[in-house]
Write a structure and sequence with these properties.
Helices cover 37% and strands 20% of the residues. It is α/β, with parallel strands linked by helices. Helix 2 packs across helix 4, helix 4 crosses helix 8 and helix 6 crosses helix 8. The longest helix is centred in the N-terminal third of the chain and has 23 residues. The structure holds zinc ion.
């Protein structure tokens, strides 16, 4: 009887504890999807850098971030820069948003987690909503911020919402040219750009060709998740695959010799197309991809001195 009772008690306790423990390691699916719906809404007019729609996206991000316990650098949460807009053929102002979560063990060294919030705006009267590209990564970054503000990492996490990626990685280049801390304190970049739309359940981790020490950790992370984490798209002379090394903001970090891992999906029919809408993302895949990215940040932080050693010290 006693053994049976204890067994039942243990079982009951496990049932009570398991969901909350699991929830700690996961993003909140409903909130994640709400962010994408808001950021990809028609009213934001495709979030073209330097427009009112981009400013509306920033207002949304800042209102979400204000709920969290984040640290800010001396310059505040906004980093302004000018860039030549491709289509408009004029100089415009872009604005990156940044904050950080102080690391518990090595606070003066940073993992920079990035996602660009800008997209292509309105062209020929059609709104390019950019739900996958890149309301998805931006939303995941909000939830990464929320999670780790409650569960700080060993190293500091710099949360960086980048502008003007579609104009040639302009926000990322402005950031690495003038970071709020010394550049050698930036140890790793984790970039998310297009992580919400895939029917094959496949997410890519790009960059391990250049930084092979990252691969074993990412492979372990991949094994813990239901979606398939694939590697590739980072070799210059691959006969069948493009090279995405410079395809998004991580390229600006790579140019400075800062290791990166980029999470993204294969190109799809909605890529740089007006059909990249909230209705066309694959929500279940997206939630799992965001969970995986969060887990990767957690795991890379735990092994940062091995996977991204500081070569300058
Ligand atoms: Zn993008």
């Amino acid at each position: 009887m006693r053994t049976g009772f204890r067994f039942l008690l243990t079982l009951a306790l496990l049932c009570l504890l398991a969901p909350s423990l699991a929830a700690q390691e996961r993003v909140d699916a409903e909130r994640l999807l709400t962010h994408v719906e808001m950021l990809a809404h028609d009213s934001l007019q495709g979030r073209d850098a330097g427009t009112k729609g981009a400013a509306m996206a920033r207002d949304y991000l800042l209102s979400q971030l204000s709920e969290l316990n984040l640290q800010t650098f001396d310059g505040g949460m906004e980093q302004r820069f000018t860039f030549p807009h491709r289509r408009a053929e004029e100089q415009r102002e872009g604005v990156n948003l940044l904050a950080y979560i102080e690391g518990r063990v090595v606070p003066d060294t940073f993992i920079v987690v990035t996602a660009h919030y800008d997209h292509l705006g309105v062209q020929d009267g059609e709104i390019y909503n950019g739900a996958d590209d890149n309301a998805s990564g931006t939303s995941a970054l909000l939830e990464v911020a929320r999670h780790f503000s409650d569960h700080p990492t060993d190293y500091s996490l710099l949360l960086l919402f980048l502008d003007a990626e579609e104009q040639g990685l302009r926000g990322a280049r402005a950031f690495v040219a003038d970071p709020p801390v010394a550049q050698d304190q930036l140890r790793l970049n984790v970039n998310m750009d297009m992580i919400s739309r895939n029917t094959e359940n496949e997410l890519y981790a790009v960059g391990t060709h250049h930084y092979p020490k990252l691969k074993p950790v990412l492979q372990e992370v991949g094994e813990r998740h239901d979606i398939d984490l694939l590697f590739g798209y980072d070799q210059p002379d691959h006969p069948e695959q493009d090279d995405w090394t410079m395809a998004s903001d991580h390229g600006a970090f790579h140019e400075q010799g800062i290791p990166f891992v980029y999470f993204g999906v294969e190109d799809h029919p909605g890529y740089h197309d007006p059909t990249d809408t909230f209705e066309n993302i694959t929500p279940e895949f997206f939630v799992q991809a965001a969970d995986l990215a969060l887990d990767a940040i957690y795991s890379l932080d735990k092994q940062l001195s091995t996977v991204a050693p500081n070569l300058t010290k």
